[in-house]
Amino acid sequence: MDEKHGGPPLRERPRRGPGELEARVLAALGSAPGPVTAGWVRERIDPSLAYTTVVTTLTRLHGKQAVVRRRDGSSYVWRAVFDAAGLAARRMRQILDQESDRGAVLSRFIAELPPDDERLLWLGLDTVSAGTGS
Fold first, then answer.
1. 0.70 exceeded by the pTM?
2. What is the pLDDT of residue 4?
3. Longest pairwise C-alpha distance within the chain
């Protein structure tokens, strides 16, 4: 037992995948009744996590403009701006914005998609077109 963190010893914990903790934090914030504390988030996602781990994750999400915070006494309360899918879409857009030949990048992206993902993309494009009248 890791006394500091209240869970299994660190060496026995499986390593989280990239972005997994951010996604869990955003999901918790998305289900919150309003702006909530880091402690509230920690209790919802994994009470054995160190409080500082949750605060660090929230701070990084704030830097990515995925959450907003406001001072409430001596700490902050947090609210999601994006869900996990919105954050991933924002990252994809930022990468695309760095490229000079956007058409080539998008064409290559589509060409390398697995068939199921390509079908989802086309369905999404049809939905967006229908909703905007384009």
1. no
2. 55
3. 59
